[in-house]
Amino acid sequence: MKKRMISLLQVGLMLLSLTACGNGADDSAQGGSSGDTEGAYKINVILKTTASEHWQLIMAGCRKFESEHPDVVIDITGPANETSYDDQQNMIETTLNNSEVDAIIIAPLQSETAATLIAGETRPVFALDTNIEAPEIVSFIGTGNEAAAKLGATEAVEAAKAAGWETIECIEIAGVKGDATNTARMNGYTAGVNENGGAFLTDEIQYANAVADQAVTCMEAIIQTHPDGIAIVCANNDDMAVGAVRAAEGNPSFANTIFLGFDGSTGACQAILDGLLTMSVAQQPYEMGYLACQTAYDKLQGKDADAVIDPGIEVISPENAQARIDKVNGYLAELN
């Protein structure tokens, strides 16, 4: 009787062993497909925020790449707004302490802080939208903000001349003071205006922390100091540009002012079609998100990565605003 029990126990153990081996072979064959993420590359993306269209489009690009690559799992986080510095720092620290993450993509609110946090990191780290000056950064994926802003400002000066302005002065409603992207765009606006016969009023820069309601207050201050109008008002993003336009709407002194935004959002495009906003420098955030994930994936597979990857820009005017709206809405629909 005892021998029979031992024999049955041995058979049972053999069956369990065979079953375990069979399951392991199935999991390996799936390689992360059909919802199984075991063995997949894990890429963490930390954005400046997830609250605006620009960042939603970047998220859509990341999700598009993930949907095309079953061996990739992408985690996307971001603080509530672009001044939540501590929140983003905590997100970066949490990701760095997660040993399961294979690659990290960061759109830094504070580039210097991010550089300090990633010091000594051996996993591949990529800068998105705003560069991080650190040896750990494999690639910067984003717009050449200074060159893009310069192009927009150049076209704004030409538009101001066509609108009949003899004295072409420009005031910027800027984003977050000290932010690297904000500074790059400011430098571009300055060069584009000054090199084409205008005057960028550096002493009158208004800071609106990248939000529309503060831009309204800034524009009201500009109206007070320039009651006869000004040729160009440029903004660090479209939300601020549209806020400025709304604040000046109905004021005859600003009827011919050239309002220049940055990002090419659907709201800005509609404002251009409605004859309010004049133009916007459009980034390609969907492509930016996709390319960031593609670059990280390629690096994890042992491929070379370019130091800078620029998805390109375009200046939005009444001629191409509707096409831009249609394209952006199509991208955003992919998130639903």
Task: Provide structural commentary.
With 336 residues, this protein is an alpha/beta fold. 47% of the residues lie in helices and 16% in strands. It contains eleven helices and 13 strands. The N terminus is likely disordered.
Please give the alpha-carbon distance between the first and last residues.
64 Å
Ranges where pLDDT stays below 50 over 5 or more residues in a row are 1-35
Helical amount: 40-55%
Characterize the overall form. Answer: elongated
What is the gist of this entry?
This protein has helices at 2-30, 53-68, 85-96, 111-117, 145-162, 180-194, 212-225, 238-248, 266-273, 285-300, 321-333, and strands at 41-46, 72-77, 103-106, 125-128, 137-141, 169-174, 199-200, 206-207, 232-235, 258-263, 279-282, 308-309, 314-316. The chain is of the alpha/beta class. The protein starts with a helix and ends with a helix.
